[in-house]
């Protein structure tokens, strides 16, 4: 039953060629295009050719590069657009009325999230593979090395990879949760995309807002709230993956003679979250957003 | 056990002064294998009722039961229903076949053999690989019926299934629906504006107006009880005929010369003829007209 439902959702996603072409396949194709561009530069420019030999790219770094995309602004915007079409599209095409007599509401919504997350993760696995292989071909083509050898892989590589994968997965579901919730409430693709983008931007600038509140009130409570935001915890996890220490909370708070903030200093600095705490906060965000989306759909009258 | 049962079903949109009662205290009991016609003018509450039956919207009051199972947020009950509402809606970027596959798999399984049979039965063979975005309204209607029947449900809810079909298509659809009830034992809940079509297909009807059920029952019984059928006679001499019949039946002048219109049940025809012959009246023609469902519908909803 669940497998069959997953295949139905998968067909709907992959069948929408414009959607996946414009928002999803651009990543592996983009990786391939950049690699081809590098190859051309390596062939045409002696300077770049020499640099590729002197400072060879590392496949371990190449394999990690694209996992940061779901956490970037561009990545978030694309996931929002993709998720909004997936959820609000059912209203636009009037297909909920065909689906609901066949399957329970919660099952349908949860399966949409699972399909979306699996699809995006697979695309980034593919993108990483394409990039790692294409970058290797470029290096070998210009006569350069492509380290490290398998027995020289840095000890923290797998830890970094796993943490980046988990962070990308959670981040994708959280962003999809925001988009889905808005799409289900507004029942419109355009409204869903616009409000979703607004929400993503708000999450991105919330640090500045908390700083303004701190500057106005002097209360440390406001900057400390930043530790619960999606942005901070994603950043913190990536920092743990890279350097095994927490990311500073609003590190830019020590501002001198700023027009808005004046002479603002957070002393002592706020302690960052540990890795398990950040993971827990992101999981809670994911459950909250997916849960809210499912709850709003569960209670909704389908009139389209 | 009823195939479909509504108890005191109500749906109100909005609150206070802005409240709009789309359905009010609807009670319906539809037996298994019945073909039930659900009639009503535009905005009467037909589609709202259908949405309530399918648990697409939640009732303000009352409950719906499918084969005794409460429908509200109970997917197991609704899965016994195949539905087609307010025009067929599909993923325009997928082919007809892929749409069937998606809806079949959403239910839990896709039977390709049955899908092929249904594509053929609804007359879409050869066009199933075309994208539904390029389908005509009639083709979408046909695919909608195939989709509703895909998981072989015992209950079918069809909202205006012949809308957008050409006359031949309407006839095919009518025969198809009859066949579904007669040969496959399906319960059919049919909402339509085509009253003559409903009269030909349905054995029971319900008429809804302003959210309330005004009449419900077997078509023949409803029409029989509604008013006396009319008998138009061409007779000479007219006054002599009128004198022979008046007092026993309601007699009015007809639309042409030497014509009388008499309100009388079918069983009274021999007595009328005998009375005319006894009065030495010559009978040149006779037409007996039964009250149609359309007459009945208009009289009830007027």
Please outline what is shown here.
The complex is a heterodimer of chains A (304) and B (302). With 304 residues, chain A is mainly α.
Question: Which terms summarize this structure?
Answer:
heterodimer, A: 304 residues, mainly alpha, two-stranded antiparallel sheet, 2 strands, B: 302 residues, alpha/beta, Rossmann fold, Alpha-Beta Plaits, 2 domains, 6-stranded mixed beta sheet, 4-stranded antiparallel beta sheet, 11 helices, 14 strands, 35% helix, elongated
- N-end to C-end Cα span of chain A: 26 Å
Side-by-side strand order of the widest sheet of chain B: 6-7-8-3-9-10
Assembly state:
heterodimer
Helix % of chain B is 25-40%
* Main sheet record of chain A: 2 strands, antiparallel
Low-confidence stretches of chain A: none
Number of helical regions of chain B? 11
Average pLDDT, all residues of chain A: 87
Write up what this structure looks like.
The complex is a heterodimer of chains A (304) and B (302). Chain A is an all-alpha fold and 304 residues long. Chain A has one domain (2-299). Chain A has 13 helices and two strands; from the N terminus they run ααααααααααααββα. A two-stranded antiparallel sheet of chain A has the order 1-2. The two termini of chain A are 26 Å apart. The model of chain A has no long low-confidence stretch (mean pLDDT 87). Chain B contains eleven helices and 14 strands. Chain B has helices spanning 46-53, 75-78, 96-107, 112-121, 137-149, 167-184, 195-201, 219-226, 238-245, 269-278, 293-301, and strands spanning 4-13, 20-30, 35-39, 61-66, 69-70, 81-84, 155-159, 187-191, 204-209, 212-218, 230-236, 250-253, 259-263, 282-289. Chain B is α/β, with parallel strands linked by helices and 302 residues long. In chain B, α4 (112-121) crosses α5. Chain B is elongated. In chain B, 42% of the residues are buried. In chain B, the strands form three sheets. Chain B has a six-stranded mixed beta sheet with strand order 6-7-8-3-9-10, sandwiched between helices. The model of chain B has no long low-confidence stretch (mean pLDDT 89). Chain B has two domains: 4-219, P-loop containing nucleotide triphosphate hydrolases (Rossmann fold, 3-Layer(aba) Sandwich); 227-301, 2-Layer Sandwich (Alpha-Beta Plaits), CATH 3.30.70.980. The longest helix of chain B is centred in the middle third of the chain and has 18 residues, at 167-184. The A-B interface holds A 1, 4-5, 7-8, 11-12, 15-18, 93-105, 107-108, 298-299, 301-303 and B 51, 54-58, 73, 75, 78-79, 81-83, 85-87, 89-94, 98, 101-110, 147, 151.
């Amino acid at each position: 039953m669940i497998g069959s439902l997953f295949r139905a959702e998968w067909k709907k996603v992959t069948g929408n060629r414009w959607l996946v072409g414009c928002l999803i396949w651009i990543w592996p194709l983009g990786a391939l295009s950049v690699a081809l561009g590098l190859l051309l530069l390596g062939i045409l420019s002696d300077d770049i050719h020499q640099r590729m030999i002197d400072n060879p790219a590392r496949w371990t770094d190449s394999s990690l590069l694209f996992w940061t995309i779901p956490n970037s602004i561009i990545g978030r915007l694309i996931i929002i657009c993709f998720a909004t079409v997936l959820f609000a599209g059912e209203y636009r095409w009037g297909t909920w009325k065909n689906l609901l007599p066949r399957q329970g509401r919660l099952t349908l919504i949860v399966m949409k999230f699972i399909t979306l997350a699996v699809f995006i993760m697979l695309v980034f696995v593919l993108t990483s593979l394409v990039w790692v292989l294409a970058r290797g071909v470029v290096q070998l083509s210009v006569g350069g090395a492509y380290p490290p050898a398998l027995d020289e892989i840095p000890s923290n590589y797998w830890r970094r990879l796993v943490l980046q994968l988990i962070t990308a997965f959670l981040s994708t579901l959280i962003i999809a949760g925001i988009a889905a919730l808005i799409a289900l409430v507004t029942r419109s693709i355009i409204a869903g995309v616009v409000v979703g983008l607004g929400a993503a931007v708000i999450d991105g600038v919330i640090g500045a807002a908390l700083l303004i509140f701190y500057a106005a009130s002097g209360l440390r409570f406001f900057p400390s709230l930043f530790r619960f935001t999606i942005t901070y915890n994603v950043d913190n996890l990536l920092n743990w993956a890279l350097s095994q220490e927490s990311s500073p909370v609003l590190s830019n708070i020590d501002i001198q003679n700023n027009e808005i903030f004046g002479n603002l200093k957070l002393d002592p600095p706020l302690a960052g979250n540990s890795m398990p705490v950040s993971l827990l906060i992101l999981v809670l965000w994911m459950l909250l957003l997916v849960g809210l989306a499912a709850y709003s759909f569960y209670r909704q009258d389908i009139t389209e | 056990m009823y195939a479909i049962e509504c108890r005191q079903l109500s749906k109100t949109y909005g609150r206070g002064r802005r409240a709009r009662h789309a359905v009010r205290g609807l009670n319906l009991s539809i037996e298994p294998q019945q073909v039930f016609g659900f009639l009503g003018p535009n905005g009467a509450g037909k589609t709202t009722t259908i949405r309530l039956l399918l648990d697409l919207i939640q009732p303000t009051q009352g409950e719906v039961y499918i084969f005794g199972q409460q429908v509200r947020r109970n997917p197991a009950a609704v899965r016994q229903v195949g539905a087609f509402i307010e025009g067929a809606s599909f993923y325009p970027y997928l082919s007809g076949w892929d749409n069937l596959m998606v809806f079949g798999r959403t239910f839990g399984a896709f039977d390709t053999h049955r899908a092929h049979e249904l594509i053929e039965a609804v007359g879409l063979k050869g066009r199933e690989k075309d994208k539904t975005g390029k389908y005509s309204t009639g083709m979408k209607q046909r695919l909608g019926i195939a989709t509703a029947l895909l998981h072989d449900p015992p209950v079918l809810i069809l909202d205006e299934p012949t809308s957008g079909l050409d006359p031949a298509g309407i006839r095919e659809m009518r025969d198809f629906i009859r066949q579904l009830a007669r040969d496959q034992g399906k319960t059919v809940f049919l909402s339509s504006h085509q009253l003559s079509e409903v009269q030909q297909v349905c054995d029971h009807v319900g008429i809804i107006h302003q959210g309330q059920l005004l009449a419900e029952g077997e078509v023949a019984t409803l029409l029989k009880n509604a008013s006396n059928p009319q008998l138009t006679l061409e007779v000479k001499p007219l006054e002599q005929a009128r004198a022979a019949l008046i007092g026993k039946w309601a007699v009015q002048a007809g639309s042409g010369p030497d014509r009388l219109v008499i309100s009388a049940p079918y069983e009274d025809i021999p007595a009328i003829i005998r009375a005319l012959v006894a009065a030495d009246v010559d009978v040149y023609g006779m037409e007996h007209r039964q009250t149609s469902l359309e007459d009945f519908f208009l009289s009830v909803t007027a």
